[in-house]
Amino acid sequence: MGPPPYPDLGKRAKDVFNKGYHFGLLKLDCKTKTSGGVQFNTGGTSNQESGKVHGSLETKYTVKEYGITFTEKWTTENTLGTEVSIQDQILKGLKLGGQISFCPQTGYKSAKLISAFQNARVAMNFDIDLDQNGPNILGSAVVAHQGWLAGYQAGFDANQSKLTKSNFALGFATNEFVLHTSVYPIGPS
């Protein structure tokens, strides 16, 4: 097992508080898979204080012999999303894909090119987010050695030629526990 991608560092610790303990929030998630291999995931949350309700429906189909996955998502905000990805075909551990989303009510459109590579020693991500405000680039890498994890994440707004993220994380992981710390810059980003 290799290191997790940067966004998943400390995930097991966060899940202690984010999954199963929802004060003032009702949450329901359902997953099923057809005999033909199509996965259906649906979920909903209801905030008891604000009265807001959110739901989503996601379908996923994988063509295993080609490593291609098609994912469609529809939310109660009437946002439609599609992702197509290919994994382990060009290089073992490499995932390449694209995402598009569209909100018919507002006309908002966005697209994202995603790439990820993961093996026993390293996990790297490089994404380009293309929306109406211009491209944003996000890259990260996590390296592992004898249970120790070190990661760095950087974000760049190409429209403003400005670094938007510069985060560093350290951790130690075993089967019994995970120790994790992150350093984020103070002030406006």
Biggest β-sheet: strands ordered side by side in the sheet: 1-2-3-4-5-6-7-8-9-10-11-12
* Percent of residues in helices: under 10%
Q: If classified by CATH, what would the architecture of one domain be?
A: Beta Barrel
Could you give the order of the helices and strands? HEEEEEEEEEEEE
Count of strand segments: 12
Structural class: mainly beta
Net shape: globular
| Highest-level CATH class of one domain | Mainly Beta
Distance between the termini: 34 Å
Looking at CATH, the homologous superfamily of one domain is Porin
**CATH fold-level name of one domain:** Porin
Residue runs with pLDDT of under 50 for 5 or more positions:
none
* Average pLDDT: 90
Biggest sheet statistics: 12 strands, antiparallel
